[in-house]
Amino acid sequence: MSRTPAGSRVARHRSLSFVLSAVGVVIAPLLVLASPASAANVQQTFDEVEVVANPDNFDIRTLESSIDGSQAGWSNAWIVTASNQDAPGVVIDYRFDSPQDAVTGIAVANNFGNITSDADGIGTATIQVLDSEDHVIFTGQFVGANGGAVQTLSFPGRLDDVATVRMSDITNLNSGPGAPYIGWREFWALQDVSTPSLSTVVNADGFSDDITVADAEGFGGTLAWNLYGPVPAGAGGACDDADWAGAPVYSSGDLAVSGDGTVTATPTQGRPHEVGCYSYAAVLSGDNYTADARHEVGDPLETFMIEPRPELTLTKTATVSDENGNGLNDAGDVVSYSFVVENTGNVEVSDIEVADAMIGGATCDPTTLGPGDQATCTGNQERTLTADDARTGKVVNTATASGTANGGTSVTSEEATAVVTLDEPSAGTGRGDASDDGSLPSAGGLPLTWLLASALSVLAGTALLLRRRSPVMSRKHVAD
């Protein structure tokens, strides 16, 4: 993308060893300065400087010093103009690799040499501001003055997407005979910035972290957060004095911040369960911040502990085998029981077993469970349904699972119950396995008593019909 007028020469500079040929003007560092009410001024050096036009072939020396904000004294660029003390045809661009927001003006530390007395700085210059698409978004006139004071040119408000500051129509501050050059020590852009702060609140059990941004002055940024842990508690048994060096990262993420307000960091894999100490850490960064705002790992406000929580959950299932093949859950059928034991706590549990008095317990595999693991258990005995069970109408069986957690703590599950419901004779031929709620499905059928009653009714109706026809036949016979 060219910005070079016809007939001009262009030079780009990123090194610190440059001399353009012929007679010239002095140019000192051009920097970005941040100065809102909430922050100290900071300097941001331009990334590139370019002579866009030099039709009179002035000698423009050490231009590279104008992109180094540490330069001072005679260590700056300059244009030697010989008898012509102005440089109206020279155009110089200072550019950012990444466009800047909230730019509010420019400031010039004028003069060359002895800054308190020389009259060889900029008299006037046209200042243009270009955005990232080379559109001119501001044009103004800078007017310099003698001595060491800094002169400024303010914009009518904040300018965003500032990519280039262009200086042209440069004149010499010395209106009479004098040194044949123009010089200035530093040339800044003024930029609003802020110094944000962070405050945090860790929610219950470390499920999330509310992070509040203040003093951002409307500037956005990116908040990067990490949740570290687990690490062992400190010597006093608390997390405040835990050693966080080399702590693993449990979860992390980035959050967009548009200014003051609260955002929430939430681990994608949910609340941590493993025993130990955890701590959030957060860093807020942005182009218009004087410095990153931080909350470091181990900050007591960001730290919490996951305590040991041994827990077992037992699921029990009853399955009925129709031994007599009549399609009913009735006496003579056999019930077998199976179990699933799950470690729903956050510590390892060993010596897993199931207590079930009706069937003499169960055999489990495996017998040691880590958090989230399961064991499958089979009842040691089967239960045959009896006539007493049929009169009762159901068989209710309960069991518990138990084990030993780390540290020797015993843990027992809540009771799990399976209910087998027996069928009445009129219930038909349907049957099925018992579920956790204790019900057994059955299919309906036609009872034998109903069938017998129906047959008797048919026979009685037939007999009555025959009896009614008999007199008619007799009378007919006599008439014959």
Q: Can you walk me through this structure?
A:
It is built from 2 helices and 31 strands. It has 480 residues and is mainly β. It has 4 domains: 11-191, Jelly Rolls (Sandwich), CATH 2.60.120.260; 197-306, Immunoglobulin-like, CATH 2.60.40.3930; 312-427, Immunoglobulin-like, CATH 2.60.40; 452-480. The strands form 7 sheets. Strands 1-4-7-12-9-10 form a 6-stranded antiparallel sheet, with no helix packed on it. Strands 3-2-14-8-11 form a 5-stranded mixed sheet, with no helix packed on it. The model is unreliable at 1-41, 427-450 and 469-480 (pLDDT under 50).
CATH top level of the largest domain is Mainly Beta
Kindly report how far apart the N and C termini lie: 134 Å
Helical/strand content category: mainly beta
CATH architecture of the largest domain: Sandwich
| Unreliable spans | 1-41, 427-450, 469-480
CATH superfamily of the largest domain: Galactose-binding domain-like
Number of domains: 4
Number of strands: 31
Instruction: Tell me the fraction of residues in β-strands, as a range.
Output: 35-45%
Compile the SSE list and pairings:
Blueprint: E1 11-13, E2 30-34, E3 42-45, E4 48-53, E5 59-61, E6 78-80, E7 91-100, E8 103-110, E9 124-131, E10 136-143, E11 150-159, E12 162-168, E13 181-182, E14 184-191, E15 197-202, E16 209-214, E17 221-231, E18 249-257, E19 261-265, E20 276-285, E21 293-295, E22 303-306, E23 312-321, E24 334-343, E25 349-355, E26 362-365, E27 374-379, E28 383-384, H1 387-392, E29 394-405, E30 410-412, E31 416-421, H2 448-479
Parallel strand pairs: 2-14
Antiparallel strand pairs: 1-4, 2-3, 4-7, 5-6, 6-13, 7-12, 8-11, 8-14, 9-10, 9-12, 15-16, 16-19, 17-18, 17-20, 20-21, 20-22, 23-24, 24-27, 24-28, 25-29, 26-27, 29-30, 29-31
